[in-house]
Write a structure and sequence with these properties.
The chain has 690 residues and is an all-beta fold. The radius of gyration is 27 Å and the shape is globular.
Length: 690
């Protein structure tokens, strides 16, 4: 270890050497030397060690300490090499002394406050300013004589400075103001692009292990397959206005946490369980391990910010009613039920398919898996369903409920005269265009829609009007092979692209387990033909994965490129030019993501400062959240223009940033300078280190 002792704030210490010696009999390969840990930004290193070190040879690492605040600081030198026990570490410590401000970094939303404190002033009087204005102003934010800063009403970056009145000493902090109002639906919008283009805080320059990391972990009562959502400036009774992150669990709970303050207690927590009411044991479905050990809330909720309502579907097993699925409408400020809810989900359609009786098919609350994220479009909440491990009888369903009354307004069955056609979509939601048309992709099941009296749409891209009438569809020419081999076409769901130049302006893209990317014209989807009459297909583009290859994760879009995280493969980018995709990946990550592939999201400030975020799930423990064959998940950040350039990795800061065991489906949520990851039993918050 190295202890630098006391060092004045803002001044660099003399270099302290570390000698690395290869004491073995074979060459040593050093791949990296990095500074990690709680205060990594206060320490720096230079070295001549990276590369090959012969047996008996030595190299040098020189470390300096430049404290940012007057306080004890610590970090670690991590040396990654091919020797046993890698990475090898050296502990660093030092204490900053003198005049300083705390915190040195603050992330706020408009009108939020931050208390800054000064250390080392002694008996000297101090003056506070913002961007050089004593006391600040309404446009840059105001600061009191005691250091309480109030953010302005618009986004921006400002410098808060404290100085002695004689001008001999000063210290400054950076205040980032971010004005995103919320992330109200899975993958940010109804097109499911996965991009937050209003992220003004996080940039490729500051998302590094030196300045970015884990801020806190919040405990959940179960696995969170649903992705988190976020609403800024919510008025919480008795607690004032807060930025709130919402997360739902398989234990039939919904949590509302303060997104900014260091409190382990939720603002509110609602459980849909009570005496005689439990979650559904996974074994009850006949399939043990897809969602286990319990089934409660799987699909990501959706929020209506105009009414302050969160819509969520919870599945329960009840002594009085058996298996039940209900649509709840919760007040985002309190968690209280609204609109006379909840309502029991039920539907029936005419049909002679699997499970029918007297020409009617009834919705089955046990066999239907509410896996896709909910969609709110034009005042209707749309809910999609797949199955539990293809356990019969099941059908793909889409149900629609009036968002104001919770009355059912439509019911569509994918395979009324057959079976299957589940809507899986890796928790990705049904998509909607500006005209209110609904899009989804189905999986293995009966297909008869090419006949004059056929109504079954297994292994198809489907477009519905708001009333549940099929407007158009596309079914691959080899749909029978896809279904027979369990190559679920709808494993990842649709993404509606922004308007494109050329002959096909309105495009939809998706890729599933059959290795192929499909680019479809939403205005003329192509129907079913011996030769697929669509804009483009990239066949066998994702060939890896056992026993089933392909893509299981929802893609994302940014700046003219599509990003996929296929199973047992690299994250890959495909460029769009004149409405057509590049025929091979234009960029790849170095890392390979095993089952179920990478869960992706994008943050950027318009078309600048783009970051591609990815979660890696390391191992599948079937019915258990942890096991000997699994490891904690990993959060990574990449340059979307060059996926070979990794910006951040939660495994590269020692144990400081370690993620919980990752859950299937849940994608990273980026909002107002923070990244939220829901997992098997925690909500982990990452952001700029204070």
């Amino acid at each position: 270890s190295i202890d630098f002792g006391s060092q004045p704030v803002g001044t660099a210490s003399s270099p302290r050497p570390i000698t690395l010696t290869n004491s073995g009999t074979a060459s040593l390969t050093v791949s990296s030397v990095t500074v990690t840990g709680a205060n990594a930004a206060d320490f720096a290193q230079t070295n001549n060690c990276v590369g090959t070190l012969a047996a008996g040879a030595s190299c040098a690492i020189n470390v300096t300490f430049t404290p940012s605040v007057a306080a004890a600081r610590s970090a670690t030198i991590a040396i990654s090499d091919n020797a046993a026990g890698s990475p090898h570490t050296v502990t660093l410590a030092g204490t900053g002394t003198g005049f300083s401000i705390t915190p040195v970094t603050a992330v706020l939303t408009p009108s939020q406050t931050q208390q800054f404190t000064v250390t080392g002033a002694g008996t000297s009087s101090v003056v506070w300013s913002v961007d050089g204005l004593v006391g600040g102003s309404s446009s840059v934010g105001t600061v009191t004589t005691t250091g309480l800063y109030t953010a302005p009403g618009s986004a921006g970056t400002h410098v808060v400075t404290v100085a002695t009145t004689d001008g001999t000493r000063s210290a400054s902090a950076t205040a980032y103001i971010s004005a995103l109002t919320g992330v109200f639906t899975h993958h940010n919008d109804n097109a499911r692009t996965g991009q937050n283009l209003n992220e003004t805080v996080l940039t490729p320059a500051n998302v590094t292990s030196a300045t970015f990391g884990k801020l806190r972990e919040l405990s959940l009562d179960g696995m969170a397959n649903a992705s988190p959502l976020y609403v800024a400036n919510v008025s919480i009774p008795g607690q004032g206005r807060r930025n709130v992150v919402y997360v739902a669990t398989q234990h039939d709970s919904v949590y509302a946490f303060d997104a900014d303050r260091e409190s382990d207690s939720p603002l509110w927590h609602v459980s849909f369980l009570r005496s005689g009411v439990t979650t559904v044991p996974s074994d009850d479905t006949g399939e043990c391990c897809d969602i286990a050990p319990e089934i409660g809330i799987t699909g990501t909720p959706v929020i209506d910010p105009s009414t302050g309502t969160l819509y969520v579907v919870a599945t329960t097993k009840e002594d009085s009613f058996g298996y039940v699925q209900r649509l709840h409408a919760l007040d985002i400020a309190t968690g209280a039920e609204k609109l006379g809810g909840p309502v029991v989900l039920h539907a029936s359609v005419a049909g002679t398919g699997q499970g029918s009786s007297a020409g009617i098919i009834e919705f089955d609350a046990l066999t239907e898996n509410q896996r896709p994220a909910l969609l709110l479009s034009n005042g209707i909440v749309y809910i999609g369903f797949g199955s539990h491990g293809d356990q019969p009888p099941y059908h793909g369903w889409v149900l629609g409920y009036d968002a104001a009354t919770l009355q059912q307004v439509m019911a569509f069955n994918v395979s009324p005269d057959g079976e299957g056609g589940g809507i899986w979509q890796a928790n990705g939601g049904l998509a909607a265009d500006a005209d209110g048309a609904i899009y989804f992709v189905t999986s293995n099941g009966t297909f008869t829609a090419d006949t004059s009296d056929g109504h079954d749409y297994g292994s198809s891209f489907v477009k519905l009007n708001p009333d549940g009438v099929v407007l158009d569809s596309f079914t691959p020419h080899d749909q029978d092979v896809i279904s027979a081999n369990n190559f679920d076409l709808g494993a990842a769901g649709p993404l509606l692209l922004p308007d494109q130049p050329g002959d096909h302006r309105h495009l939809l893209v998706s890729a599933g387990k059959n290795n192929t990317i499909y680019l479809v014209d939403r205005d003329s989807m192509g129907g079913y033909h011996d030769d697929d009459q669509i804009v483009q297909s990239l066949v066998n583009i994702f060939p890896f994965g056992v026993p089933e290859p392909g893509n299981y994760s929802a893609p994302v879009y940014f700046n003219g490129s599509l990003y996929f995280g296929p199973v047992a493969d690299n994250i890959q980018a495909f460029q769009l030019n004149d409405g057509v995709l590049s025929t091979s990946a234009s960029s790849r990550s170095v890392e390979v993501y095993q089952y179920p592939g990478a869960a992706l999201a994008v943050s950027a400030n318009g078309d600048a400062n783009g970051i591609l975020w990815a979660i890696e799930r390391n191992g599948d423990c079937t019915t258990y959240p942890t096991c000997d064959t699994s490891a904690p998940g990993v959060l990574r950040a990449y340059d979307p223009g060059d996926l070979g350039r990794k910006l951040y990795d939660s495994d590269e800061a020692g144990t400081r940033d370690t993620l919980d065991y990752a859950a299937k489906f849940s994608v990273p949520l980026v909002a107002n300078g923070k990244v939220f990851v829901a997992s098997t039993g925690k909500l982990t918050v990452y952001g700029l280190l204070p």
